[in-house]
Description:
alpha+beta; 3 domains; five-stranded mixed beta sheet; aromatic amino acid biosynthesis; lyase; Preph_deHydtase; phenylalanine biosynthesis
Amino acid sequence: MQSRSANADLNVAILGPLGTYTHEAAYKHFGSQATYVERETIKGVFEAISTGADVGVVPQENTIFGSVVETYDNLRETGFVCGEITLQVQHCLLVRTGVQLPEIRKVLSHEQALGQCRDFISTNLPTVSLMKTTSTAAAAQALLGNPPDRAAICSRVCATLFDGLSVLHEGIQNETANFTRFYIICKDQETTITPQVPRTPRSQALVRISPQLPSSTASSVVISPPSISRLLSALQINIIRIDRRPSLGGIPFHDTYLVELQEEPSVERDTESSWLAEVVKAVQRVEEAGGIAHLIGFW
């Protein structure tokens, strides 16, 4: 992985606002030297990589809530996955620097974060009042313009984002096994060779697969498309997850499958390009079996 200074000119689009867990994941990966461009929606992040951002960071899956549908919906037509980040979601209690636990009278945060930290609040702050905010980041920002007897539940990155705030307690959520995986996306496959993007040796790939539409011969004999099981078998590569979304053609029950592949750990290769060559051959085998296949991720 390159040093953080290598990312000084890197523009990273994120699902905003600044201070969210997507921002924290991006900061964890790219560091303080990158420029973070916030977008209001996941679709907005995908649009940003087509209009100037070098890379984008979007949530892909959470261990509690499952797959992020909007991310997969956008991958049906645009974007290329060039990396991933896994972040343990840890809610922190932030205060104005110097404030101690007995001084806190009110706790601010998003409604979900307040609920996810109810055990800590009831045990350590049983008499405080709770105040809902539009986001966890907004709660942290609100501390700066209010009396010092208030605290915010938010991500750790907010302490670096807003001067004058400190982390008083970390990991105060009820559920400790809460992880979110994020995709790093770029405009196309060629972008992945940009030296500013930190990465480890690549061993995973994402392929978009759709069965061909039914067709008919001159004698009106209907030719059914191959089954998805036949197309998946044609890959002949280790499959670690499959996500299904409706296709964009408007045809009822005609689906697009986003299939994540992983190189077998026991396979030794001389170069990274040999793994890429195997994935490309797998895509060709799917096409020869009657499917429509595109490589939309390699990391």
